[in-house]
Amino acid sequence: MNWGGPEFVIAIIALSTGGWLINNWIRAKHGYSLEDEWGGKTERSDTAETKALKAENRQLHDKLDAMQDRMVVLEKIVTDRGYSLHDEIEALRDKPGASDAGVPLNLKRGETA
Fold this sequence. Notes:
The chain has 2 domains: about 1-35; about 45-95. About 60% of the residues lie in helices and about 5% in strands.
């Protein structure tokens, strides 16, 4: 191959142009700003649909955050000792009365349990 010939120069120009096109295609695909031929940046303009989707996404994220906060509070309530204590008290209410509990203490004579 002749390194100083026109074929080599054309090959370098073709490879450089191809690399630039691939670079801009990847940047556009992932939402980055594009480079022009002079090294400047071209920002993408948001369409009405894109703005609406961003607003909806923001609302859904806020709603999700609120739901997560509520879930944390509910988990604290359910795992709290007071919640199970309430269930135990309600279970005791269903048992037979205190008259069936055994021998009553005679408080006048100072008996203790």
